[in-house]
């Protein structure tokens, strides 16, 4: 065929044949000698042809069918022939003169027949496949193995169906989370993102475009807790005693809420209604109930609850939540500041829970998560303001059954995972131990961003949650370099392996590993430093 001036000739690199076809994938044979010849090709995509995780294309009429190589083995009888299992990714049209792929779309409408020829995919093909299709995207890095093809995430698809970021300690997980959230903040400066930060490392990353809250300025009123959350904080008994204590607390809490003027005119006042009340009112009501002669139980349950409330009131570590200053009706102001309504160019709230007492941290996370969900439910007749809730160290709060039983934080986060998208609540889970997550939560995440996972059980867990087409990438998970990840699901057109961009120093979280060889050669000032540390330690403040 004569090629017009300035038009690239049609160059195709044949490497094998289709042998067997089934619904989502098939089996192909690859010629080892042809693959070896291509291994030194100047185009890195063609040089990778035939490797596990690489792509191939199969001609069907005027369209190209793209597939990913999942596994390989040598042919038992024929020398130099490789048997490979492949997963179909999608199809695109053929550019007549050059043979390149264009107009790529996910899914398969026409399957190849056994005997169809298999070709290597070029970088030009890859560029067409990974080119964003006009939807809102954020670019996070470079597609492996290319040097210039950008990997993008479809923001609406990723947030609309939740996402999970997974990776063992030290793989660059926190920096990757900061990168993705910075990109989203740049795209949507009037967004609404709430991030639970259990280690206090993200405040440094978002000091310029985020609102930062910790025990010193969070001021989260205790009366925002619902009944179950009250029980988790105030009731420490177990067995039959726990049920008795809960019944007493429910009765007294309802009476305390009813005393507030905000409760007047509310016909359906319940123990869950976020109506302010005084802790002193609650303890007085408990005292009064305890003094009644016709009460059904002994005084012990009343004493247990009252003792716990008095203990929390007297402990300065709980002042961010149980201070006497938090009795006013500040619910609107609290929601406005935490949910960034309006955002004013700072769309992300970093909630640093690292310096909170450990026995109340999960309750604080439960209250914040439930407030996000309840706000979304009760605002359905208003202009929609979707909220993204990002949960770092998610396995702490949504543990699997074998790790822990029911807790209020697990219940609400599981509910958000299952129902959140109906109400405009998106969930972002970040964890280093996906196998410790509650069963089913990971499968609710439409987009999975997996960095290196060293543990076999974690790898198996992710394998079960990933869609069929991404299975060829799974073998690469233990071999990923730092700051490299595999992305699959709704947020990308097809599964991709991406080398993530570098993040400017001032935008990184404070999660760098200590350099022992340098720090252990430094000395001086330890005495003064110890004095300052002990002072902060004793005052429980930073």
Please name the defining characteristics of this protein:
Rossmann fold; six-stranded antiparallel β-barrel; disordered N terminus; alpha/beta; 18 strands
What would you say about this model in short?
This protein is α/β, with parallel strands linked by helices and 542 residues long. 33% of the residues lie in helices and 21% in strands. Among the domains are: 14-130, no CATH class; 171-221 and 328-424, P-loop containing nucleotide triphosphate hydrolases (Rossmann fold, 3-Layer(aba) Sandwich), CATH 3.40.50; 224-319, no CATH class.
Layout of secondary structure:
Layout: E1 14-21, E2 25-31, H1 32-38, H2 44-47, E3 55-60, E4 63-74, E5 81-94, E6 101-106, E7 117-120, H3 123-130, E8 137-143, E9 150-154, H4 155-160, E10 163-166, H5 173-187, E11 193-197, E12 210-213, H6 227-234, H7 240-258, H8 279-291, H9 300-314, H10 319-322, H11 331-338, E13 348-352, H12 358-378, E14 387-392, H13 394-397, H14 408-423, E15 425-431, E16 447-450, H15 456-465, H16 471-474, E17 484-489, E18 496-500, H17 516-519, H18 526-539
Parallel strand pairs: 10-15, 10-16, 11-13, 11-14, 12-13, 14-15
Antiparallel strand pairs: 1-2, 1-7, 2-5, 3-4, 3-7, 4-5, 5-6, 8-9, 8-18, 16-17, 17-18
Helix pairs in contact: 7-8, 7-9, 8-9, 12-14
